[in-house]
Amino acid sequence: MDEAKRAVAALKAAGKTVATAESCTGGLIGKLLTDISGSSAVYPGGVISYAYEVKHALLGVDEALLREKGAVCAEVAKQMAEGVRSRLGTDYGLASTGIAGPGSDEFDRPVGLVYLAVAGGDSTRVYEHRFSGTRAAVRRQAASMALEHLLEHIMQRSDADLR
Which of 48, 69, 136 has its CA nearest to residue 100? Predict the structure, then answer.
């Protein structure tokens, strides 16, 4: 995907790094980044955190939040992005959590509902999306959009640094 090439180039130009915390995308964002030659300079790795226990133990997502709201919510996406950024010591944390389908979750959320989060600088932004299509299509759309959001965040930070 072109977004991955652009993200790696932007990270290199800015001298920044990113780590990923993926649930519904199942490692696809990391795969897209590592498909790019030289990405190891900006991408040390990520966590595929499908189970609640992994989200809590490896990313620091609040257990009570997971029990009360489930994994598919803005707050969990935020904590995932911040957690992976902190634990891997990167400039940015990029997270995905959602319902790729074909079925829903225990809260009966719609298939295609995905939350993406980018943690960087002194802020974390969370984005809600509704994707459509097959499970694979939802995952591809989510991974692509996550990289687009990362690019937006990098460019905004770079613009702010130039002022």
Answer: 136
The burial of 4, by beta-carbon neighbours within 10 Å (0-12 exposed, 13-18 middle, 19 or more buried), is given as: buried
Tokens of 119: 């943690």
Quote the crossing angle between the two packed helices 74-88 and 52-59, to the nearest 10°.
Answer: 40
48 contacts: CB under 8 Å, gap ≥ 6: 22, 23, 26, 27, 30, 54
CA angle 35, 148, 130 (to 5 degrees): 110
Question: What is the Cα–Cα distance from 45 to 98, expressed in whole angstroms?
Answer: 21
Q: What is the spatial distance between Cα 47 and Cα 12, in angstroms, rounded to a whole number?
A: 22
Pick from 92, 69, 78, 73: nearest CA to 20 = 92
Query: Any idea which residue has 């459509």 for tokens?
Result: 132
- Cα–Cα dist 113/88, whole Å: 27
Q: With a cut of 70, list the residues of the chain below it in pLDDT.
A: 1, 158-163
Q: For residue range 116-154, what is the model confidence (pLDDT) as tens digits?
A: 999 999 999 999 999 999 999 999 999 999 999 999 999
- Here the tokens at position 58 are 């490896």
